């Protein structure tokens, strides 16, 4: 299913949307795998929408590692968030192949349109904007990713239509 | 009578609306009471034509593309379901397309033709022939075939795969060994790994199982970057199916040996494409680069002997085993044997996947395949081999694609990405971006990379602002040398290559003030 049909059907992560039991459950399901930490962090972020700071001591204790170890891994990887994101995570490709097709202008347009910079969330909580370095769609750039869907040949006009569609379909549900 | 229609399901086709095209086709067929069998094939890698619809006809698979979802109706009226030629998007029998006809597809022979997760389709198109041969050979016999093929690592370092496998095979057998596939395809301008995983995942599974039998490894991991969620999904399903059919598991192809496979997700770190950083990440740690030696072949994943190969290296192995190392080595030139999957990207009219024997000139790729820029403006620079490689000016485009020929120019082939820029590019900004990217993605373990990249951005900004320009140019040159000589891995060690190429070939851009970007 493509993004256009999927918009509005996903759970919006909300702070307080987790419990220690939930963390225990996810860690216990994976802790005996070799090199379990990344799979655990993915499982938590997929379920809660982010990796809560309160999960760190629980993971540390269950994996018999220090809190610093766990924090160090979470902070090393761009993918993991420790706070909830907006309703839509919007990633704009900043890499060379997209630059060659107008990616720099698109980056600027997106930031102006949404009124936020990278790693920021819009005031209405609709979009969290993040840079991404290559989506592997390099012959059809510039590319963006909205949640899990890659979109190619994005012009400023195409982006505006998309942003409007995403915000409108969410409103219709309310 | 049932009409068979194909609509690709790879990331590029989906990014351009392939799902909606498929829906529109089904609606149109229902409106006509037409019995349609809609297949979701992989992409053929002719990306400027995506979404590409194919219709099975008595005279081949007739194609139309690129199809916007709202063009489906008019295509149907023009006779799409019968394969009528009466429409501007009509392309005829797609297998006869010159872009495909001029290629030598050994690794990518099946993409776009088959349903990626249908194992019967894979087998019907020659799949698992290599693994069956390998299962009947002694481990040394498998390694000898790979050595005879001349296959060199396609991830970028071009190290002979057979020698790496021999090293792991020669380690004592009474211990756990691993095969790790590097699917952290982070270089901008590359998508060949993704095409393997999304469009022909069993080929990678087969290559890894062969590697497992060759070196005595019983467990393999595919480390997929988190940007490639669709690849991960395809692999998970293909691994389950391959196991159910006895191509993985406790008794691979009935030869009594065991090999299991698991796909793991990265988490957004370019550095994890470096093999030792990748191993750290698989172990559940920060992706910090390890010092070498020891080589991963001797002390790799969890300290055990490990084959670490790129997707394309492992994907080349089924062909090599099925047809013999010599058949593969008959392609190519000098010490660059076999075929190179070139990924033509950026500002190019006809971008896509081009698999050819080593030795083709860059100009042939740009002109014959690419047909010029997407914008129609003159080309100015081409970056071959990813963000850590040189920008090449036009006087270097007649160089044959060969590891040694490119190295002589201070350039590289890397993972085979070719990114084209037209004459509006500001090469000073490209040099600055190389340093900026390194600052964002450095693992931080060694100083030349961690600090050098930050200083590099600052020095380039001063040069471009006209601040003490001559001295800052000397400083930039020295900084580049320090990073090249003093960094622990290729990230810091090669980030200067694009910068130095701009200093050498495009100095006028570097000296000029940055051009404003209009939103």
Q: Could you please describe the fold and organization of this structure?
A:
The complex is a heterodimer of chains A (174) and B (519). Chain A is α+β, with helices and mostly antiparallel strands and 174 residues long. Chain A folds into 2 domains: 57 residues, no CATH class; 88 residues, Glutaredoxin. Helix content of chain A is 46%, strand content 11%. Chain A has a 5-stranded mixed β-sheet, covered by helices on one side. The longest helix of chain A is centred in the last third of the chain and has 18 residues. The N terminus of chain A is likely disordered. Chain B is of the alpha/beta class and 519 residues long. Chain B has 4 domains: 99 residues, Glutaredoxin, CATH 3.40.30.10; 211 residues, NADH-ubiquinone oxidoreductase 51kDa subunit (Rossmann fold), CATH 3.40.50.11540; 91 residues, Ubiquitin-like (UB roll) (Roll), CATH 3.10.20; 85 residues, de novo design (two linked rop proteins) (Up-down Bundle). Chain B has a 5-stranded mixed β-sheet with strand order 2-1-3-4-5, covered by helices on one side. Chain B is globular and about 75 Å long. Chain B starts with a strand and ends in an 8-residue tail after the last helix. The model of chain B has no long low-confidence stretch (mean pLDDT 97). At the A-B interface, helix 3, helix 5, helix 6, helix 7 and strand 5 of A face helix 1, strand 12, strand 16 and helix 17 of B.
């Amino acid at each position: 299913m493509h993004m256009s049909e999927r918009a509005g059907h996903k759970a919006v992560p909300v702070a307080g949307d987790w419990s220690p039991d939930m963390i225990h459950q996810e860690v216990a399901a994976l802790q005996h795998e070799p090199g379990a930490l990344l799979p655990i962090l993915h499982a938590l972020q997929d379920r809660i929408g982010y990796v809560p700071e309160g999960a760190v001591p629980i993971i540390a204790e269950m994996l018999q590692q220090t809190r610093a170890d766990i924090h160090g891994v979470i902070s090393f990887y761009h993918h993991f968030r420790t706070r909830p994101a907006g309703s839509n995570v919007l990633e704009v490709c900043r890499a060379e192949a997209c630059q060659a097709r107008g990616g720099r202008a698109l980056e600027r347009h997106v930031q102006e349109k949404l009124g936020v910079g990278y790693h920021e969330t819009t005031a209405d909580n609709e979009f969290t904007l993040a840079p991404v370095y290559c989506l592997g769609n390099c012959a059809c750039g510039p590319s963006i990713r909205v949640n899990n869907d890659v979109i190619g040949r994005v012009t400023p006009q195409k982006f505006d239509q998309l942003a409007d569609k995403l915000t409108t379909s969410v409103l219709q549900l309310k | 009578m049932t009409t068979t229609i194909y609509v690709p399901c790879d990331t590029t086709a989906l990014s351009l609306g392939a799902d909606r095209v498929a829906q529109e086709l089904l609606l149109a067929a229902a409106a006509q009471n037409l019995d349609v069998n809609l297949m979701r094939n992989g992409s053929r890698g002719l990306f400027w034509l995506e979404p590409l619809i194919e219709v099975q006809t008595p005279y081949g698979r007739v194609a139309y593309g690129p199809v916007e979802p709202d063009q489906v109706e008019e295509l149907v009226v023009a006779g799409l379901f019968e394969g009528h030629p009466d429409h501007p998007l009509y392309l005829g029998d797609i297998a006869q397309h010159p872009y495909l006809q001029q290629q030598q597809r050994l690794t990518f022979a099946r993409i776009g033709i088959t349903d990626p997760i249908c194992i019967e389709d894979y087998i019907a198109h020659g799949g698992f022939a290599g693994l069956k041969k390998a299962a009947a050979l002694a481990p040394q016999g498998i390694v000898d075939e790979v050595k005879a093929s001349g296959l060199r690592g396609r991830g970028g370092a071009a190290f002979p795969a057979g020698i790496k496998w021999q090293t792991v095979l020669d380690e004592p057998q009474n211990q756990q060994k691993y095969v790790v596939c590097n699917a952290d395809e982070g270089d901008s301008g590359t998508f060949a790994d993704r095409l393997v995983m999304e469009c022909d995942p069993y080929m990678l599974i087969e290559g890894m199982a062969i590697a497992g039998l060759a070196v005595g490894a019983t467990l393999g991991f595919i480390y997929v970057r988190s940007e490639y969620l669709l690849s991960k999904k395809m692999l998970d399903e293909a691994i389950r199916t391959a196991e159910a059919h006895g191509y993985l598991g406790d008794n691979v192809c009935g030869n009594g040996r065991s090999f299991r496979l698991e796909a793991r997700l990265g988490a957004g770190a370019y550095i994890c494409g470096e093999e030792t950083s990748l191993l750290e990440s698989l172990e559940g740690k920060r992706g910090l680069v390890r010092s070498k030696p020891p080589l991963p072949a001797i002390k790799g994943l969890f300290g055990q002997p490990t084959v670490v190969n790129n997707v394309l290296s492992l994907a080349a192995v089924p062909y090599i085993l099925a047809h013999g190392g010599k058949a593969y080595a008959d392609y190519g030139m000098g010490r660059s044997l076999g075929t190179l999957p070139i990924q033509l990207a950026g500002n190019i009219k006809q971008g896509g996947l081009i698999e050819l024997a080593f030795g083709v000139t860059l100009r042939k790729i740009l002109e014959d395949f690419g047909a010029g820029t997407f914008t129609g403006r003159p080309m100015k620079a081409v970056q071959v081999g990813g963000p850590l490689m040189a920008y090449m000016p036009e006087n270097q485009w007649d160089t044959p694609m060969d590891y040694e020929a490119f190295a002589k120019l201070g350039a590289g082939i890397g993972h085979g990405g070719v990114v084209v820029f037209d004459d509006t590019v500001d090469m000073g900004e490209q040099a600055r971006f190389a340093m900026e990217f390194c600052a964002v993605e450095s693992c931080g373990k060694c100083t030349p990379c961690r600090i050098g990249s930050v200083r590099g951005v600052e020095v380039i900004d001063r040069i471009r602002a006209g601040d003490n320009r001559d001295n800052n140019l000397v400083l930039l040159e020295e900084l580049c040398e320090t990073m090249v000589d003093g960094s622990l891995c290729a990230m810091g060690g090669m980030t200067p290559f694009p910068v130095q190429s701009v200093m050498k070939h495009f100095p006028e851009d570097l000296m000029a003030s940055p051009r404003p970007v209009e939103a």
